[in-house]
């Protein structure tokens, strides 16, 4: 049965979408005309533009999703349970072994460990299974017309068209999330232009279907964002009873590891924290009563990929599970 609240929500969503000036045909034509001038100036051919934007009108589902942001009602404990399922861990371990050849080449080239790249791939798209089924140009066009950060999304759209122009992907295969994140590593077009790599030398940077390119592109992103080879992302820790962790927690506070050790903070099995980077921050995604982690430089690198402690911690924990296999 559909509740009345649900009906009201649907009605609100429907009318919010319909009230968009973007949905008026004349505005779409005007938008496309001015966008085309910009795209052509950025090196996109008229043919590519017409093919990619053919039949474009703002996608009301995307407007709805965009307006229901921000997420984050879930606790980290719940998020972790979903993302670090047994199935995802097992599959990650299997792929880590199966893809040893490609992953070793990637490790050698970028200094980023294989288990970290496999974990990112697993968290982003469940190892390529869920890339999002939206046309990236149409999704970005919708967000560019929708008023929230129009310049950002318009710039991303022009880049998306340029990626097609350069032959990295066809219009039909340029699929991604509703927010325009593309392929198996969910790069925005600007990240693609900066970090995507053609690792197998076929002239295309194919983050949609080529695992050489997918692994190398993810590793290149991390390497260029300051990854320190040989350092861990972080470590789950146990706090001593009675420690008031609230004022210590947060990425804005960095302390010598020794200071945390002196407070009695230890590894989960109660052992001393040795062989770790000299500076750390304490992260407690669910607040002072939840799980605690001491994190290092490479955790901040995860956060350059996605500015969420939930995301960064989940990638780190999954990488530990995969690496321990
Ligand atoms: Ca390639």
User: What is the CATH architecture descriptor of the domain at 4-68 and 132-182?
Assistant: Orthogonal Bundle
Q: Specify the helix fraction band.
A: 40-55%
* Count of alpha/pi helices: 15
CATH C-level class of the domain at 4-68 and 132-182 is Mainly Alpha
CATH-wise, what's the superfamily of the domain at 4-68 and 132-182? Bacterial muramidase
Bound molecules: calcium ion
Beta content: 5-15%
Question: What is the element string, with H for helices and E for strands?
Answer: HHHHHHHHEHHEHHEEHEEEHH
Core attributes:
Helicase, Ruva Protein, domain 3, 325 residues, 5-stranded antiparallel beta sheet, binds calcium ion, two-stranded antiparallel sheet, 15 helices, alpha+beta
Descriptive overview:
The chain has 325 residues and is of the alpha+beta class. 52% of the residues lie in helices and 7% in strands. The protein is built from 15 helices and 7 strands. It has helices at 4-18, 25-41, 46-53, 60-67, 76-83, 86-98, 100-110, 114-125, 136-145, 150-165, 189-195, 211-224, 257-262, 297-305, 309-323; strands at residues 134-135, 175-176, 234-238, 255-256, 266-267, 279-283, 292-295. A hairpin with an 8-residue loop joins strand 6 (279-283) and strand 7. Helix 9 (136-145) packs antiparallel against helix 10 (150-165), helix 11 packs across helix 12 (211-224) and helix 14 (297-305) crosses helix 15. The protein is globular. Calcium ion is lined by residues 198, 200, 202, 204-206, 210, 213.
